[in-house]
Amino acid sequence: MSKNNDLGLLILRIAIGAMMLLHGIAKLGDVSFIEGMLAGKGIPSFLAYGVYITEIVAPILLIIGYRTRLTAIVFIIGTLTAFVLVHSADLFSLNDNGGWKIELLGLFTFAALTLFFTGGGKIAASSSNQWD
């Protein structure tokens, strides 16, 4: 059986992009809870709208494979921000089933890190730039 790394990278891009996109769509029109978290930490609340970049724009760009490596960095910034703002107390915690409490966030982060190092592959909207 022959390897098809480009198809594997496409599947990875679609998987994490689609799952994160659903998180972003759920926040369309109402980021007030994020604004509240930011304000509570002394961070300007208008930065809450950055969630649309990290959870809608970046996932769409990952899915289509445009500037995958650069987009992966933006995606990682979003996951790390969510970790710091919401989930930092869960770093060493397990859920009721024995899994890591932030396993989905971890999967998102490490999958995006993988795409940063590999690029998006040849089955992508762009694949010849250094940021692809």
Q: What is the global morphology? A: globular
Structural class: mainly alpha
Radius of gyration: 16 Å
Distance separating the two termini: 27 Å
N-to-C SSE series?
Answer: HHHHH
Please count the helical segments: 5
For the report, how would you describe the main beta sheet?
Answer: none
**Average of the residue pLDDT scores:** 95
- Helical proportion? 55-70%
Any chance you could write out the topology, listing elements then pairs?
Blueprint: H1 5-26, H2 32-40, H3 50-64, H4 68-87, H5 103-118
Compact description:
The chain is an all-alpha fold. The protein has helices at 5-26, 32-40, 50-64, 68-87, 103-118.
Q: Which descriptors would you attach to this protein?
A:
single chain; 132 residues; mainly alpha; 0% strand
Describe this structure in words.
The longest helix has 22 residues. The mean pLDDT is 95. It is globular, with a radius of gyration of 16 Å. By secondary structure, the chain is mainly α. 24% of the residues are buried. The protein is built from 5 helices and no strands.
